[in-house]
Amino acid sequence: MAVEAVVSVVLQKLNEMLKVQALAQNKLIIYEVQEIMKSLNSMRDLMISTKAIDPQAKQYLNAIYNIEDTIEKFTVIVVRQRKVFGFLTNHIFFFTNFNSCQKIHHKIKKITTQLMQLKPHSPYRNIHIEEIPTEYEKDEETPAPNHESITGCSSTLETQETKTGSCMEELTFSYSCNEEEMQIVGVKERFQKTSSFSYKEEELGIFGLKDDVEILVTHLTENSQHFVSIYGLGGIGKTTLARTIYKHKNIKSHFQFRAWVSVLEGFTTKDILLSLLKATDKATKSDDEKQMKLKLSETLVNKRYLIILDGVSTCNIWNDIKETFPDVKNGSKVVLTSKQKMETSEVDIVSHQMMPLSEDDTLNLFKKKVGKEESWHLISEASKKAILQSCNGLPLNIILLAGLFSTKDPNSWSQVFSCMKKETSILSICYNDLTDHLKVCLLYSVLFPKEFDIPVRRLLRLWLAEGFVKQNSTKVFLEDIAQTYFDELVNRNMIQVSKLRSDNSPRRCRVVGVLHDYLLPKAHETNLFYTCRNLISYEEVGSLNVRRMVEYESPKTETRDQFEIEILKKTQPKSSLFNPSHLRSYMSFNHQKTDYRHAKRIGKFLGNIINDGLRSTYLENIPSSVGELTHLETLDVKHTCIDELPGSVWRLKNLQHLNLNETCLDMQPHSSSRLLTLWGLFLDEKIAIKNGLDNLQALRELGITFQLKSNQNDLMDWIAKLTALRSLRLRSKDNSGRASKLVFRSMSKLHQLSHLNLLGNLEKLPDQNDFPPTLKVLTLSISLIKRDPMETLGQLPSLTVLRLLGESYVGKEMVCRKGGFRELSLLRMWKLKELENWFVEEGSMENLKHLDIRCCDRLSNIPTTLLQQGKLEKVVLTGMPDRFTAEVERLKSDHTSMTINHWKFPPLPWEQDNTTLVNPSKA
């Protein structure tokens, strides 16, 4: 049990406590807090060294969480005192606050003393730990300890910082991927210097599986058998193989319909049916399983379909669902992945067994993942045998172990081999090697359902909000440290990047299924979070002091009558001992269609925690009391009806991310604000830029819609100084919502700006040197540029995505010169109404993968050189003339897929009559 990791989080919160203004000026209280931290460090070291602690771990864990609660309550009380009494706080409440610190210290010393009795050389004794009350008044009778340091303290705060700080030097991320392979691995620049990570097909998780891929693709596209089973040991790569096949170009072109269902633990036949009906856009309100099967069969019968059911663990579900998939002899296939061979007497199933990698393939994959070829001689023959024996030919074991070795100095590899002799599980070896903070972050990641694609940005901000990220001296912002945590876990192959953004940065990630299975019990043991499937009844929760509640989609569908009976109960069942007072967060992954019953269920649950619950998401205003939320880090009012924020938001010293909905601000930001994200701000002449918005100097993401006649220059001057800016969106509109003049100033000094989105009339396209040198993604809308922009844009060295939208260019001809657009992978051209001719010289856009053309009515040709080049994977044509689509179909290469859409689009706002004008930002 990783109790020591939880202690590290409490230490972090104590460190933050020292920064509270009301305490920072009181040396005695600071001294007492430091003594508390020393005691906690002693406790943590004892927990690491004491192997016989497991029987008492649950009691110690509850005590640690109790201390955490006490610390947080104490901090909140002190902050409130400061707000009411100002500088008098230290005088009025000195003894109260000092005594509170002493009591916390006493609790920790009490636990540490008990832990000392469990050192390895001591005989095992069953020690009872008393429940520690959270309210200060409950232990007033406890005598205050003296201020002497604890004898035998083996670790101080400074030592702890040294241990974890070495992993936190400044890093950058570099990504690339082959979209066909799904398994995408991120790698830091630091490790590129010492390893040979690359993105070849062999290293994307399908090493040694080429023959399997070829065999299965051939069978699925040519043979007649309807059902195919892929089976093998856990961690052997069944899901990886299935995903590779699912995304294979031959499979995409052969099947008219494809669907993927991850069959998770607890899934029933109904869950699988619902998932497939959603994929076919044939959602049903019926709870009748027979009707659901009939509807699905009717939908599939006229299609050549491929359905992959990943993780079918029992034959019971398969026997119950196989009749749903009609075999009409048109080449349709159903693929199952499982650990056991699937057999049934009623239908024929072609089985494909996945075998472990050979010894040579195991060592080759290990070497490639570790890199550091120059140090390979340090691994003896005995060590190679240890690798083979530990990995057992399973790709997951190999890449996890290789990820561990890649983070170590080659001279310390012998120590890793020593650990391998003591531990039989690769998962245990890799997990135990993590620092405490990385352990907690990784455990928290399995809060998301198995096989769930986790939004990377959301995950990092959750780590921050939960206090899992430790400040160090090399980084100003905790967000940067959280990024290094993520980088480290990706490099260790414990988190896999599953989807990239347009600029090749990580968008979504996942924890591999086998690793998720290993980590989830550990997360539950540490009471990090609790998962449930039924918010109507708390019977399953029991007497736990739940700190984080996670709701997964229930495999059981309640009937309306059953639901109404339960919802009429005004309080939770008396037999449940669930105490919601400790709850810190609630997250729902219930993907059922939101309806009255589901909303009521969540409302009832939240009502037990916050009295009135949440009645509506259509918020119209936020009270000024929002300024009292001292620790608030993110305020997101997007997709609401809020059009103005109270000035009290600028009292939020910890606010870092402010996401708005084209919202006005009531007052100017303070110069002390550390805001990193300001997105969706509406700006007019009332809000000052000089000595106002220009107080915000640390912004990384900025999105502004503005109506400015006179001071656009002030706006651009401010933006030109935001050297940390990474993403910028500017929309210039008039009072009718139409695009208006947009002034552009040089952004050549913004060396971190990679995303730029401009909506508004530009007098001319800026020169190449005026764009940010690191620009990767450029979006232009309603720019009304008259001169061909491609010669200038083609010279931008890092441009990977170009979107020319809604009359960004109003000329008749475009020419892409030889050698231009060297890095461009995606090009969108939408509603370029005047464009007639487009020429691409040979040697231009050589890395283009995705071409998207929409509603360019007059475009008469598409460059043959572009359609014939080897890297173009996909062409999407929407609202284009038939003659144009036919010409593209004739000229494109066989390896390029083509999608034709015939959608109709409403006219742009300025194309409508004034009486029907629509604000495009609200549409």
Automatic annotation (TrEMBL):
Residue span of region Disordered: 135-157
Domain Disease resistance protein winged helix intervals: 447-517
Annotated ranges, domain NB-ARC: 210-374
One protein family per Pfam: LRR_14
Annotated GO MF terms: ADP binding; ATP binding
InterPro entries: Apaf_helical, Disease_R_plants, LRR_dom_sf, LRR_R13L4/SHOC2-like, NB-ARC, P-loop_NTPase, WH-like_DNA-bd_sf, WHD_DRP
Biased composition, class Polar residues, residue ranges: 148-157
Residue ranges of domain Disease resistance R13L4/SHOC-2-like LRR in the record: 613-855
Keywords annotated in UniProt: ATP-binding, Leucine-rich repeat, Nucleotide-binding, Plant defense, Repeat
Stated family: Belongs to the disease resistance NB-LRR family.
PANTHER family assigned: AAA+ ATPASE DOMAIN-CONTAINING PROTEIN, DISEASE RESISTANCE PROTEIN RP
UniProt name for this protein: NB-ARC domain-containing protein
Organism of origin: Centaurea solstitialis (yellow star-thistle)
Lineage: Eukaryota, Viridiplantae, Streptophyta, Embryophyta, Tracheophyta
